[in-house]
Amino acid sequence: MMQMLLNNRYQIIRTLGSGGFGDTFLAEDTQMPSQRRCVIKQLKPIEHNSQIYQLVQERFGREAAILEELGGLSEQIPTLYAYFHLKDKFYLVQEWVEGDTLSTVVQRQGLFSESRAKEILINILPVLEFVHSKRIVHRDIKPDNIILRGDGKPVLIDFGAVRETMATVVNSQGSLTRSIVIGTPG
Asked: 18-48 burial by CB neighbour count: b if 16+ within 10 A, else e?
């Protein structure tokens, strides 16, 4: 638990998640009158492999750029508040979406009825249509990356695996080149 202010501004409240590439925190923005809550994603350096770190860092930067472009235009995509670098770590600050992921809701309440599942899917389709209209593919849509907000609307989160659709790389033999596995295994 960090007691200091991150970037002289953000007070960490609690850890939301931890993974191989970094941690996610819930924080308060002390420089806003509302002390609004926000989510901070922290990218940790990978000591053993600078090449992988560079790729992950580029992906993280792309997520920030995509959130900046899309978040302000759709109420079902979190807004980017800030993106900064401190002591070898990168930070992305975004809107805190109050609610639970679809995974959490299913664990707590059991499976959705067919009509409720349809309603959620129909409500996420305009977001996907919007994202695709910007020539962006999310590539990691799963119950963990959809938050059901208090008003019942699904919000699409975690744009870390996004791909601009025009960026497919073909090598000199004419076949698609493979890169780091993007998205969720399986």
From this structure: eeebbbbbebbbeeeeeeeebbbbbbbebee
CA 26 to chain centre: 13
Query: What torsion do the CA atoms of 48, 53, 54, 60 make, to the nearest 10 degrees?
Result: -170
The pair of structure tokens assigned to 91 is 């930070």
Q: pTM for the complete prediction?
A: 0.80
- 158 annotated active-site: no
Residue of 140, 144, 151, 158 with catalytic role = 140
Give the count of beta carbons closer than 10 Å to the beta carbon of residue 76.
22
Please write the tens of the pLDDT for every residue from 61-91.
888 999 999 988 999 999 999 999 998 889 9
In whole angstroms, how far apart are CA 76 and each of 90, 124, 147?
A: 25, 8, 9
Task: For residue 169, give the DSSP letter.
Answer: -
| Separation CA 23–CA 91 (nearest Å) | 10
Question: What is the rounded CA–CA span in Å between residue 14 and residue 12?
Answer: 6
